Amino acid sequence: MAELRFAHAINRALAECMEEDPAVFLFGEDIAEAGGPFGVTRGLHARFGPDRIRDTPISEAAMANAAVGAALSGLRPVLEIMFMDFMTLAMDALVNQAAKARFMFGGQASVPMVVRTPHGGGISAGPQHSQCLEAWFAHIPGLKVVCPSNPADAYGLLKSAIRDPDPVVFVENKALYALKGEVAEDAGPIPLGQARLARAGRDLTVVSYGATVHKVLRAAEALAADGIEAEVLDLRSIQPWDEQAVLASLRRTHRLLIVHEAVEAFGVGAEIAARMADIGFDELDAPIVRVAAPFVPVPFAPALEEQYQPQEADVIAAARKLCA
């Protein structure tokens, strides 16, 4: 085992995929010598050269369309969008081109591209650099959406994403880049669409993904001191999501709490809640509860941002209410 930071695990996965497949190349704003805004691609330019690690102009629309064209021509581009908020500028390429190509060409063409992008708050970056927009892309047939919570999953899921024949939006929470965790030296890809049981429990199921998984686990430890044993599922993949793992956990605990940093309204939690209310209705002993951000833009001020983001105390309060 090797202890790696989240960012270094992504770097390792990128390097190994580039070594394994000459069709893999990276491009984005300042990703070459600078290593990107968070240093994730640092060192790769010196290792693989300017033909495979390319800086781009500040035009997300141009980058995304170039990635689609490269993927259709047989390459495997990995595009970095500096902040998820700027995915808005790449929507046509992703939603109308990348996601639709396999369908429109009758299965004769595929778009094996990955878009890496950081989301989330915690650095006082304000409403245009802190949004969690993963639910938008999970709503689009033809796109896959991944959001790891730890270095091992970041490594394994990114390898699967790069090898996937279809477009994948790979979401990285900014608060996790410095997180340390063990990654096996011989670790392999992790299949997309499989949730991870992060903690076993009997009294309620808590489903989360990304950075909020760690808040949920800390809340679960606090709840255990009061005799409430929460089972924690790390979703890992948002589209496709592992509804059978959630249903299996619900059958054990009979209560469901969903936690994510994104805005609650029309979010990932809403889809999970609706689906479990359908296929898991007979297992429920209480209403499904969501803990997520309010329906307002992300504030700049650190104190307000902390109130905006779901915290451990919010998870604990919701869990206690569910189990009352």
From TrEMBL:
It comes from Achromobacter veterisilvae. InterPro entries: THDP-binding (IPR029061), Transketo_C/PFOR_II (IPR009014), Transketolase-like_Pyr-bd (IPR005475), Transketolase_C (IPR033248). It comes from the Bacteria. Its cofactor is thiamine diphosphate. Residues 4-179 form the Transketolase-like pyrimidine-binding domain. Keywords: Oxidoreductase, Thiamine pyrophosphate. Its EC number is 1.1.1.-. SMART domains: Transket_pyr. SUPFAM superfamilies: Thiamin diphosphate-binding fold (THDP-binding), TK C-terminal domain-like. GO terms for molecular function: oxidoreductase activity. This is Acetoin:2,6-dichlorophenolindophenol oxidoreductase subunit beta.
